[in-house]
Amino acid sequence: MDLRINGVSRSVDVPNQMPLLWVLRDVFGMTGTKFGCGIAQCGACTVHLDGVAVRSCQLPIGAVGDRAITTIEGVGETAAGAKIQKAWLDLEVIQCGYCQPGQIMSASALLAANPQPDDAAIDAAMAGNLCRCGTYVRIREGIKHAARS
Amino acid sequence: MLRDPDRPFAAGAGLSRRSVLRGGAALAGGLLIGVALPQARARADEPTPTGARFNAFIHVARDDTVTFTMPAVEMGQGVYTSQAQCLAEELDIGLDKVVAAHAPADQANYGSPVFVVQATGGSTTTIAWTEPLRKAGATARAMLVQAAAAQWSVDPTALTTENGVITDKASGRSIRYGEVADRAGDLQPPADVKLKDPAQFRLIGKPVHRIDTPEKAAGKTVYGIDVMRPGMKFATLMASPVIGGKVGSVDQTKALAIPGVRQVVILDNLVAVVGDHTWAAMQGLAALAIEWAPGVHAGLDQAQLWADIEKVSEGAGVVAKKVGDAPARLKDGALFEATYELPLLAHAPMEMTNCTVHVHEGACEVWVGTQVPGYAQAGAAQALSIDPAKVTINNHLIGGGFGRRLEADGVVAAVRIAAHVEGPVKVVWSREEDIRQELYRPLYHDRLKARVENGRISAWSHRITGVSIMARWLPPAFKDGIDVDAVDGAVEVPYAVGDMLVEYIRHESVVPGAFWRGVGPNSSIFSIESFIDLIARKTGVDPLAFRRGMLDKSPRALGLLNLVAEKAAWGTPAPASPFGARRGRGLALMDAFGSYLAAIADVAVSDAGDVRVTRVVVAADVGKVINPDILVAQIQGGVVFGLSAVLHGEITFAGGRVEQGNFNDYRILRIDETPSIEVHVMPSAENSGGIGEPGTVVVQPAVANAVFAATGVQLTRMPINATLIAKAV
To answer: Are residues B219 and A73, on separate chains, in Cβ contact within 8 Å?
Structure first.
């Protein structure tokens, strides 16, 4: 199976049903994408397929097709991703950081699709990403900060 | 930045912390436990990279890289940055030169001055480590200066330091730390060093950027769950779903037929599947046919747990505090009484329990994120019946602790599995196993009684019933039948309450209890602040005025109440919300962890009884602050953690099994339920208090009191129950 991850072509020989999350983490050793719940309830595993945020724990590798995969390791190469990562550091959004790859992927997809999101748009786009440290107040501020930059 | 965990590094070699601490650090506040300090273990110097290790915490390399070995672990609370600020402040270097290294299991060098054992928890890091780390930094600086002075044959007092450079102003010469590190490292450390005048601080007290977040934002941080070892296999497990149950029989046929499944490990109380990747292991586990032997607790349910603790709470308690004769004054007449019940809670950190282990040739190597490296080492050694010295703990940045990683149960389970596996194996719990095989925040049952005379409380009794976590976790701290954590927040109250009796009843249940963010004060402060509101409303007094009237001896608390009342505009109605017509505003005050916090929460309540928190305002007086931005972040995050608990948090048993299993039924707050959270910090020159837990503690009663204000109904068992509210209003 041929995949395109962060602009790099890679081949993998695994069952079609294997979720993308485990291909990334266990086969390619790309551990920035996180396992959080396994049932698309927490968003820690969020990646982009052609720029759209998806939960990789529920995405069989066979369903990726020829869509481009972007992970936290590569999202800084996109304009929205770089802005979000910088805003996250400017405002010190991050605490333990475990959920933050997923938060950054969801926020980057939001910002790319909606350059000036309001609170309602932010809540709608980010409600699928849990943060146990409770960084939500700064996530809201961070997205607005990135939108202004 | 963080040290590459795969590169060997001699952390902890050289001087012990006790020699750094010569002169004695006075510790104040928090949980101080009078246990004799163990003798520093003699250690052979380990080979280090070029440069010198000055003490357990500081290594200066010839290239000027400064490596700080961190005694308190980083789980998001910001202590790698705040500890680095303390070290770098006195060492006179910038944080950009700092590399952070995780401490190994080594109680002699990294044991907490508060707990003695090597543990990070209880909001104690700033209280415990600020002075020892400042001294370590100042000591290393003095040695570097002395080496430069010797080289130049000048008086060391004539030299100045700035950003890693030593300068002799008289001659204009300067030299970098790295250039004198080798020679400085050979010098005898000075017996005592002078610490900086706070007026000269460049880093302490400043909102400097965190040192751990750039790698986290880039997805480069290696948490325990991200460890990869050559030849590693991946495993997942299932333990008996009924508490205390055992494995009966296992049919492995279908599991072993799944591609990538290598092995099934069957232990007395759990089954693990080992595979080429986690997905294979998960599929293999699902394909196993396991017959469990449920044992004696198969009939356990939540109603029984509640009934048991209530019955025990009717007995006599051990006296934790006695002032005057409260029982005599609470015998008859117009009295106020209430009982508050706090539920079982899972920690549910986003990084679920996991541990990578390699057992080989009588030794054991462990890769994990833990708040207790020493307990992890001891647990692994005991599981394998080997000397703890044969167990290496490689610690990592932690994807959320909240008390869960003050326990070594995950390490022990992984080691028991790994003992049957050839080569290294990473054991990862599913979210369901993580939640169902937890060590929960235990049930607490608080009985309060008070007499009110002339608008003030004149007699007070508070009886707390619950598991003693301390008796299991730190046995020397459990003395005379009192769990100091369980009664924390109840023994010392900011209010003048007249005659006072505080009692504790230890109630061990089949469900083990563990520390959970906010620890003992979570339940004691919740109960006290709920009870104060109950009395205020029953006597027709404004809850703020009622509290103010009992704070004449607590000026810090009174100042904070006034500040939060002003910022939240107490006395005006909570704003209207589309979420629900009923709205209310609630207040709470907390004096614990050496810190004072006051909070006001606004809520809206729907006809169905659902509660939405629309605004939280917090005022904090936490004494001297190392990093004001991290302080605010911890309070914001602590508030969200507390909101999850008070609105949604509950673990329940039925048929001996935990009924919840994932974030769909063990709910934690989402961004679209999160209110605005304002934090106002009162400037303070008092001793530093803890900040990790207080936000969680203070917001829960503030929300409950707001619901009380909105509905006229005080719920006494948490979490807030929509059905009960809907029925009552």
So the answer is: yes
- The closest CB to that of B217, out of A34, A89, A135, belongs to A89
When CB atoms are compared, the residue of A39, A95, A138 closest to B662 is: A39
Nearest alpha carbon to residue B626 among B271, B278, B204 = B204
Whether residue B217 and residue A94 make contact (CB cut-off 8 A), yes or no, is yes
Residues 59-98 of A with CB under 8 A from B: 71-73, 76, 85, 88-89, 92, 94-98
| Contact call for residues B356 and B425 (beta carbons, < 8 A) | yes
What pLDDT was estimated at residue B37? Answer: 30
Of A76, A127, A137, the CB nearest to B677: A137
pLDDT of A147 higher than 90: yes
The pLDDT value recorded for residue B28 is 29
Range list for CATH 3.30.365.10 in chain B: 17-217, 224-295+353-428, 303-344+441-728
Q: List C-alpha distances in Å: A133 to B189, B250, B351, B400, B633.
A: 40, 39, 11, 7, 9
Q: Spell out the domains of chain A, with CATH numbers in brackets.
A: 2-70 (3.10.20.30), 76-148 (1.10.150.120)
The residue among B335, B56, B641, B693 whose CA lies nearest residue A134 is: B641
Residue B23 confidence (pLDDT) above 60: no
Q: Which of B13-27, B80-94, B244-258, B312-326 has the lowest mean pLDDT?
A: B13-27
Nearest CB to A92: which of B77, B222, B633? B633
Which pairing describes strands B363-368 and B391-395: parallel, antiparallel, or unpaired? parallel
Q: Which residue of A has its CA nearest to B275?
A: A26
**Amino acid B42: pLDDT:** 29
pLDDT at B473: 94
Q: Closest-CA residue in chain A for B398?
A: A96
Q: Which of B323, B360, B623 is nearest to B495 (CA)?
A: B323
Question: Where in B497-581 does DSSP place strands (E)?
Answer: 499-506
pLDDT at position B14: 34
| Average confidence (pLDDT) over B505-522 | 96
Query: Tens digits of per-residue pLDDT, B213-227?
Result: 999 999 999 999 999
Residues 15-54 of A with CB under 8 A from B: 15, 18-19, 22, 25-27, 29, 31-39, 41-42, 44
Q: Which residues of A touch B234 (CB under 8 A)?
A: 26
Size of interface A-B (CB pairs under 8 A): 171
Q: Which residue, B684, B695, B555, B682, is CA-closest to B620?
A: B682
pLDDT score at B219 = 97
CATH 3.30.365.10 fits B17-217, yes or no: yes
Stated as kind and residue range, the H or E segment containing A18 is none
**Does pLDDT of A129 surpass 50?**
yes
Distance CA B384, CA B365 (A): 12
Residue-wise pLDDT for B620-678, tens only, equals 999 999 999 999 999 999 999 999 999 999 999 999 999 999 999 999 999 999 999 99
Q: How confident is the model at residue B4 (pLDDT cuts 50, 70, 90)?
A: low
Report, at the CATH architecture level, how domain B303-344+441-728 is classified. Answer: 2-Layer Sandwich (3.30)
Residue A63 DSSP label: G
Sign for the pseudo-dihedral over CA of B257, B261, B266, B271: negative
Q: Do B397 and A96 touch (CB under 8 A)?
A: yes
CB A2 within 8 A of CB A10: yes
Dihedral sign of CA atoms B402, B403, B406, B408 in order = negative
Predicted local distance difference test score (pLDDT) of residue B334: 86
CATH of span B224-295+353-428: 3.30.365.10
Give the mean model confidence (pLDDT) for residues A56-78. Answer: 98
Which residues lie below 8 Å from residue B544, measured CB to CB, with a gap of 6+? B561, B565, B570, B571, B587
Q: Which residue has the tokens 């010098």?
A: B187
